[in-house]
Amino acid sequence: MTRISPQSKEQPFDQRLLTFVLLSAAVVMLWSQSMAPKPPVEPKDKPAADAVARQDDELDEEGSDAADGEAADPDKPDAEAPLVEDQPAVDPARVTFGSLASDGPYRMLVSANNIGGAIERIELSSEQYRDLHDRAGYLGSLELSETMTVRQVGAGTPAALAGIEVGDTLASVAGKTVDSPQAVAKALAETKPGDTLKVGVRRGDADKQLEVKLERRPLDVIRPELENILLFADKPPADFRPTPSFLLRLESVGDRGTDSTAIRAANRQLTREAWKVESTTDASVTFTMRLAKLGLDVVKRFTLVEVPEAQRSDPLTPAYHFVLGVEVRNLLDAPQKVAYRLEGPNGLPIEGWWFSNKIGQGWGQYGIRDVVARLAGNQVVQQRASSIAEGDGEVMEGAPVAFAGVDAQYFAVVMLPEKETLEQVWFDKVEPVLATPLLEAGPKDGWNKPAATWNNPTISLVHEPVELAAAGAEGDTLSEGFKVFAGPKRPDLLAKYYAADQPAYNLQGILQYGWFGPVAKVMLAILHVFNSVVGNYGVAIIMLTVLVRGIMFPLSRKQAQNMVLMQTLKPEMDRIAEKYKTDMDKRAKAQQELFRKHKYNPMGGCLPMFIQLPIFLGLYRALAVDVELRQAPLFTESIRFCSNLAAPDMFYDWSAMVPRWFQNGQGIFALGPYFNLLPILTICLFLLQQKMFMPPAANEQAAMQQKMMKYMMVFFGLMFFKVPSGLCLYFIASSLWGIAERKLLPKPALPADAAPVMSKPTSVSPNRNGSSGAARNAKKKKRR
């Protein structure tokens, strides 16, 4: 019998490995994105998730409704005149602190608004963290008014370096007259980072032409949510209202709660009116608000930490935070019991909304942004944005709060109360809510429905009531502080941020690797080592592929040897199948005896499958979690193609040619705004392997299987179209290795004790002259 070697075109292609790995990956991705079992949702009223938005709506309706309520009774305290002297009205103002200079003393530039005394934007200064969508030149966040007046200029921005000042009127950009903020955005969209252009401004009575060198847009770890919505929609929802981060509201004063007219009026003042800018420095701002009718002063102070000069090049220096100080001061001659509610961060980035697959603690798809919290004596709790949007968010209470915040895929903003001990109780509950109105499909949206995972969650910390002493006495002021982490989710950096006096309660717990987490961590460690040597994560992934395939080489050669032996045994197996057509038990026993006799293990080819699957899923998880791989290019950041190994390769922008629902990437047939090349190359290599190594079909069943495999490749192509380019790179390198291994290496020999099997002939084969070998021998004997 002729043996068929692995290099021969009749060598069977191991379909089991490819099918098993790809089907497993497809099941995992489909399950995690859309098939996770959800608990039945009981009918509810408007979800509690809309708490912040509904409170704002109630404040808007305060006027006539309040007049019909408590305030109608002049004997009630709510209707009384101010208890203390009120402060003069304050004009709206914007304040920035920190710097965008990458070599400066701060890790971030913070933009605050005295309307609500809150944070609107936080831009990271490191060149490692840039915006992944906007690749046009960046001038700076100027917050232009409708009259084109510059309302803010952050330190270290291109605008500040060029000499643009607050109060200037912007007149032209690159020689083009601009008369609206939209015109400025359109003019800048035609530029690229590194361009130098002229910006015309009017300052007083003088016109100036300032030269600006544009930069790459920095990452906003907090930004106005409207900018996020306009990434996936043409306009915001009709009921949309911007909500800045870290708003403060009163929960109760004395026996008056949030249904009190006085408390509602105070909350409108705290969230909708201008706070006094008490003081500003390069690293801080202090806002104050006088609540004259309640006899209270409220202070909010934001202070950035400065990075020592010797540590500015160390990305693990714990300086990705600011301190939020809150003070509530009693101005009355009598004690008052006060409780407040502090809202957390919102408007975190939604980069990769059309492809991202954020890893969480459980099954199913997590939001682009989710709520995370940890209470004393408990593990980290992660609440999905979709659950919060459906009104299924669970209030966390019953233990002191260690930390709470909002977690995006690669970044997080988390509040850690600066208590002396973890056991101190400041807040008695943490509520997960939506900061902006629930995203819902409109009547004309058609297929372009916003995903529940795109909603904008935040936290609401409810403080326990605290007795404030009379004004001037000890204890007349409640003063508390929060360390607010706002940065990348690097494990070693997160470990340096922990609650109170408990290092075990650090922020590393917000990192979720999901299934095969240990494998993902090992692979990340190897990738980081390779990258430290070659300086390119794309090359590091190829080196990882070579390492994995090299380790698996003895197994793959054993697998090839098994396949040769299987071909050798095939005639005998066919004879057994023919002999025991109707008796499956006897057929199985005969086959087992044949395998035992020739030392063939039918499971011998399965080990590479079980090794490949965790490696594939481990790399998939690593790319979805590790911030070091985000923005890591295969070639260079100057071109979009393969500029981010944690995202699809984005070879060609076809967004102008496809509808919005197709761009948003929701579902297997919505492929996103870019044509991706690497998934196509991956599938082509799989098809090439089939063509080169798959044997001719021996029967109709085998032919049908081969035909189905080709059709399945189309399905796999759709499934893989939006996976990270780093994962495609692994598959391409692994496929090329497999082809080279089969075509270039010597044929594997059979074991010495595995002699070829010859089935017993059922007829005598004729020789070339048409007579049998036995007849020819008989003639020879006659001649003798």
UniProtKB/TrEMBL annotation:
This is Membrane protein insertase YidC. Keywords: Cell membrane, Chaperone, Membrane, Protein transport, Transmembrane, Transmembrane helix, Transport. Residues 36-90, 755-784 are annotated as: Disordered. Residues 136-205 form the PDZ domain. Required for the insertion and/or proper folding and/or complex formation of integral membrane proteins into the membrane. Involved in integration of membrane proteins that insert both dependently and independently of the Sec translocase complex, as well as at least some lipoproteins. Aids folding of multispanning membrane proteins. It is found in: Cell inner membrane; Cell membrane. Belongs to the OXA1/ALB3/YidC family. Type 1 subfamily. Signal peptide: none annotated. GO terms for biological process: protein insertion into membrane; protein transport. GO terms for cellular component: plasma membrane. NCBIfam families: yidC_oxa1_cterm. Residues 57-72 have a biased composition (Acidic residues). The keyword Membrane applies. Pfam families: 60KD_IMP (PF02096), PDZ_2 (PF13180). The chain crosses the membrane at residues 537-556, 667-688, 709-733. Residues 41-56 have a biased composition (Basic and acidic residues). The keyword Protein transport applies. InterPro entries: Membr_insert_YidC, PDZ, PDZ_sf, YidC/ALB3/OXA1/COX18, YidC/Oxa/ALB_C, YidC_ALB_C. Interacts with the Sec translocase complex via SecD. Specifically interacts with transmembrane segments of nascent integral membrane proteins during membrane integration. It comes from Pirellulimonas nuda. GO terms for molecular function: membrane insertase activity. Residues 760-772 have a biased composition (Polar residues).
